[in-house]
Amino acid sequence: MRLAVLGSGSGGNSLIIESAGKRLLLDVGFSCRQIEQRLAGLGVDLEQVDALLLTHEHQDHCRGADVMLRRYGLPTYATQGTLDGAGLSAEAVGEVRAIRSGKPFEVSEAPGFWVEAFGIPHDAREPVGFVIEDAEGCRIGLAADLGSRSQLAWGRLQDLDCLVIETNHDLQMLRTGPYPWHLKQRVAGRHGHLSNREAADGVAELLSDRLSSVVLYHLSETNNLPALAAEAVGDRLDRDGSAARVVVTRQHEPTPWIEIQRGAHSLASGAWRQGTLF
Ligand SMILES: [Zn+2]
Ligand SMILES: [Zn+2]
Fold first, then answer.
1. What are the residue ranges spanned by the domains of the chain?
2. How is domain 2-277 classified at the CATH fold level?
3. Which residues of 54-74 are buried (b: 16+ CB within 10 A; e: fewer)?
4. What is the pTM of this model?
């Protein structure tokens, strides 16, 4: 399995997962044209994507959905709350499928891919995170746009090979930064976004002998710096003896493909962290 983040931050989020010639897009927070261009840079045509999964209806996750669905007829999976919030209905755009949190399903357009959605604390109608497993049993978890770590979410994000987690802000930068007070309250609140520190604590709780990659996602360009996010999570991994590599994502450029192998590393192997990739 491999994944690439097309871009991430408050201006737009999207990532692609590929396994055995099948491809899933997770969120499309850029215009359809932007998605096409960023995919082309990774050697993928949007026609080659088999299905779209949406986490929630905020524009930075759904911006391109309407046009993309009309133009490409891409089968789309999301909770009913997200479909309603994003104005995506079968009559309007075609193949949309309502999913329920806690009910794993196999993506029929991409057999071998199993998906489990789980509810997360965020100020949207019915937001979810995902665990996605391929036919080899390789597992990726996505936890973004959540104001706090919930037992439910952390219970689902177990035994992962790759964790994609939000490191939205550095609390000090948020406090002293330019956002108006009410927005600072929203971002830092229980239904807002995870700080670097909260994400680092959250990662520490999910370490296992198979977690080989931690992808830092949804960094604020105003209230965070890539180096701060990488340091917060990297220090925590070092302290806990994890060999997992850290990949920091950016708003305006895609990551390269990130190869994920099942159980590629183990805590017992004594290997150290491969380093941080910006
Ligand atoms: Zn967002
Ligand atoms: Zn959001």
1. 2-277
2. Metallo-beta-lactamase; Chain A (3.60.15)
3. bbbbbebbbbbbbebbeebeb
4. 0.94
